[in-house]
Every structure is written in C-alpha cells, then in structure tokens.
C-alpha cells in the first residue's frame, strides 16, 4: 500500500415555482449592476455570491417578496457546506419568462473558487421549463493544485462540468477532467519500459450531491519514479479522497496518521493506491 497525503485540515414562504410567470412583472434587473469591463464573468459571480451573503439577500425558497429586487440567493446546506444559487436578471418576453442563474463553489484545500452559470433559464407557470434539472456550466477552465507536483484540470466544455439545480437550489455537481503528475514526480512509460514524452495523466469523472464528500477513483498507466532504475508501476485502482466526512473503504492508516488526526481521521485527504502492479526489467 502506498499513500500520499496533505492536510487541509424563518418563517414559511409561499413558493413561486407554480406562479413565477405571473410574478415576473415585479422583477427588476440586478440591483448590484454589471461588472466593469475589466472584471471577468467568473469574478462577477464570486462578487455577487459574497455580496448576497453580506447583505443577507438569501432565502431557502423563493417567494413573491424575493422577486421584487434581484439578485437573490437560494441557500441550501448539505453536509455542512452552504450552497448559494444566485438568481439574477430575470426577463419577461413574448417568448416566455427567463432568468440567469450562477453558483460559486470553493475548494477547501486551497480556497480556490470556480464559477458556474446558465443563461436564459426558461420558466412557465408550472416551474422550470426544462424536463430535467437545469445545468449551470463551468464558466472558465480551472486548474487545482493537488500538491506541488500534481494538478487537477477541469475543461470548460459543454456537458462536462456542471452544477444541477432545481427550484429548491443546489442538487448535484458533476466534474470531468484529468489529473496530471509532473515528470519530477512520475515519468510515463510504454509497455517496454521506454520513457514517453509529456506528463503522466489520467482522466476522471465524478457526480456528487455533496461538494465536501467527493472521491475520485481512477487508474494510472505505466510509469516509473525518477532515479529508480529497473522498476516500473501500473496502478489499477487509485482513489483521490477529497471528502472530509469519509475515507476510502477498507483503508488502513499508518500509526502516525492516527496520531495526527485522532478521532477525526476522516479529515485526511490525498491519494490512496489500493491495487498496483510492479514490473522489473
């Protein structure tokens, strides 16, 4: 077993889902205004998130009074993480009722934030016009350092990275991308033990209803460790533990980990290699 780790260590309101088309005539455009040309779309979403929390313009369920002045945030607590879906810039047109929706999520490992958005989300008297959940797509490509020589990359491509929402706010997050390892850490090889150019990479895909409970299970192609001659590795199952409420099943921590985390060992985050092949040549 090989392990690498790092420490991160109201009153009831009447829902608008069934009456939104009638109520949209009350809606104003964003009270906070548009971001300056020098501000990116992602930055504006993060700013709106912070402003709504600062001013208390949040609700657990949209009501008529909430629609009098937008933006407004729909809050939902899942696993101790507070999700805030921003409803902004609603419009009533001859073709129907529409609004924009955003969400800002933060990686707890380093505080980095990523933004998701959906434009022109359609509503009708029965609620969301979409037959399924509305998807907010990742606004910009994102790179998250997992360590000094490892990174996670998320492309801003349609249907790859998104947050699903409904009238009650956040439902799930779906991430698809790749994990890359610097050549200073791992060197990719072919089946004959010859070094390959570039970095060792593996693709992943995960869907979770809890941002703080994600675990990615992937495999790694053949690689060797720099300065370690005559031996290579192929990892058939490796888990990236990004959860602070659970650990990979059947993991057994070394004594120093147990001493470090005590009764809160579920806070450990890192890579857990469950099964690997070692080649000699």
pLDDT average, as an integer?
Answer: 81
Oligomeric organization of the protein chains: single chain
- How many H/I helical runs? 3
Beta-strand content bin: over 45%
Question: Which sequence of SSEs, written as H and E, runs from N to C?
Answer: EHHEEEEEEEEEEEEEEEHE
Q: Any low-confidence stretches, pLDDT <50, length ≥5?
A: 1-16, 18-38
Percent of residues in helical segments?
under 10%
Could you say which structural class the secondary elements and strand pairing correspond to? mainly beta
* Number of DSSP strand runs: 17
Task: Using the alpha-carbon principal axes, give the shape.
Answer: elongated
The description of the largest β-sheet is:
12 strands, mixed
List keywords for this structure.
281 residues, disordered N terminus, twelve-stranded mixed sheet, five-stranded antiparallel sheet, mainly beta, 3 helices
Short structural description:
By secondary structure, the protein is mainly β. Helices cover 9% and strands 46% of the residues.
Question: Could you please describe the fold and organization of this structure?
Answer:
The protein has 281 residues and is mostly beta strands. The chain has helices at 20-23, 41-55, 255-261, and strands at residues 2-6, 58-59, 72-78, 81-93, 96-106, 113-124, 127-128, 134-138, 142-147, 150-154, 162-166, 169-181, 187-188, 200-208, 215-224, 231-241, 269-280. Strands 2, 3, 4, 5, 6, 7, 8, 9, 10, 11, 12 and 14 form a 12-stranded mixed β-sheet that branches. A 5-stranded antiparallel β-sheet has the order 1-17-16-15-13, with no helix packed on it. The longest helix is centred in the first third of the chain and has 15 residues, at 41-55. Residues 1-16 and 18-38 have low confidence and may be disordered.
């Amino acid at each position: 077993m090989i392990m690498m780790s790092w420490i991160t260590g109201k009153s009831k309101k009447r829902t608008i889902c069934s009456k939104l088309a009638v109520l949209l005539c009350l809606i104003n455009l964003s009270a906070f205004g548009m971001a300056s040309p020098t501000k990116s779309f992602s930055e504006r979403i993060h700013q709106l998130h912070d402003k709504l929390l600062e001013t208390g313009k949040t609700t657990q369920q949209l009501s008529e009074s909430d629609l009098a002045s937008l933006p407004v945030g729909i809050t939902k607590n899942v696993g101790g993480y507070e999700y805030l879906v921003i409803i902004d810039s609603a419009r009533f047109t001859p073709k129907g009722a529409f609004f924009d929706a955003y969400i800002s999520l933060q990686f707890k490992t380093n505080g980095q934030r990523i933004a998701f958005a959906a434009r022109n989300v359609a509503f009708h008297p029965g609620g969301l016009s979409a037959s399924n959940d509305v998807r907010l797509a990742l606004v910009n490509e994102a790179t998250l350092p997992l360590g000094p020589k490892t990174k996670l990359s998320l492309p801003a491509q349609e249907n790859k990275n998104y947050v699903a929402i409904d009238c009650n706010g956040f439902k799930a997050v779906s991430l698809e991308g790749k994990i890359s390892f610097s050549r200073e850490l791992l060197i990719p090889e072919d089946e004959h033990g010859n070094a390959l150019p570039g970095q060792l990479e593996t693709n992943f895909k995960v869907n979770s209803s809890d941002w703080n409970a994600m675990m990615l299970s992937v495999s790694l192609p053949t690689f060797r460790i720099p300065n370690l001659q005559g031996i290579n590795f192929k990892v058939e199952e490796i888990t990236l533990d990004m959860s602070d409420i659970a650990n990979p099943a059947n993991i057994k921590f070394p004594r120093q980990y147990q001493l470090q985390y005590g009764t809160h060992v579920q806070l450990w985050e890192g890579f857990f290699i469950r099964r690997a092949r070692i080649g000699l040549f």
